[in-house]
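Researcher: Sequence recovery benchmark, item below. Answer with residues only.
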């Protein structure tokens, strides 16, 4: 009786450990952050760490009634999750600005969108500026102050962007759309800081001319969508948290 030939051994996948290793490193980093924040007996340093985490992740690190850190909830997890915070931030801004737009006949001129890195408040250019101009139209300051009120409680960095269509400006002051878009972004930033009271250290302006269109520039409707001022609320990164914690350790 012949013996059954042994089956050939399947080649091992020697790279499977990379996935597990990456998960372990991520979990260890989160664990050390939580342990550091909850184990320090120095109240001043603990407060510094709490503020650093809030600023880096845009989340509130809750405090117990005795002043201790409540970074962990009863289930043992971070409270709340970053996704929940981002979703709640978007929903809160959307509700506030949608109600303001409806009350002032500005439907369609103030829009919100979000992705994995930011929330963007998009303001139609004819809401703020006349064609080829960087001077604010009457009433536009009130719109920007309403936006500033909605943003005031956020610790995030804000990027103020100017965008145009692909038609060159007919202006002696702005020979190209680069000058026009940058001047408009700077004008919006100044109102948010000088009249809206936002922290200038957390804002910066950028002009993109026609390089980041939302729609096709071949139609009037598309060009109208592309002429806009965007206020971009940037989500923090892991590197931001590391820098914030490093700064708190030096204090």
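Model:
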């Amino acid at each position: 009786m012949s013996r059954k030939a042994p089956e050939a051994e399947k080649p091992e996948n020697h790279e499977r450990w990379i996935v597990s290793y990456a998960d372990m490193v991520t979990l260890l980093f989160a664990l050390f952050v939580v342990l550091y924040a909850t184990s320090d007996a120095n109240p001043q340093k603990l407060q510094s760490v709490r503020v650093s985490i809030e600023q880096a992740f845009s989340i509130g690190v809750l405090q117990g009634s005795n002043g201790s850190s409540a970074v962990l909830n009863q289930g043992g997890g971070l409270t709340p999750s970053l996704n929940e915070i981002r979703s709640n931030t978007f929903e809160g801004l959307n509700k506030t600005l949608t109600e303001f737009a409806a009350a002032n006949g500005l439907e369609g001129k103030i829009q919100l969108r979000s992705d994995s890195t930011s929330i963007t408040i998009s303001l139609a250019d004819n809401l703020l500026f006349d064609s080829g101009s960087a001077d604010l139209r009457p009433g536009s300051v009130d719109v920007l102050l309403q936006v500033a009120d909605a943003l005031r409680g956020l610790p995030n960095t804000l990027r103020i962007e100017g965008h145009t269509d692909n038609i060159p400006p007919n202006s002696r002051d702005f020979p190209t759309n680069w000058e026009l878009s940058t001047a408009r972004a700077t004008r919006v930033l100044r109102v948010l800081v000088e009249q809206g009271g936002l922290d200038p250290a957390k804002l910066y302006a950028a002009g993109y001319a026609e390089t980041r269109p939302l729609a096709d520039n071949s139609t009037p409707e598309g060009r109208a969508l592309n002429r806009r001022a965007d206020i971009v609320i940037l989500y923090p990164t892991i590197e931001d948290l590391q820098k914030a914690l490093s700064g708190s350790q030096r204090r």
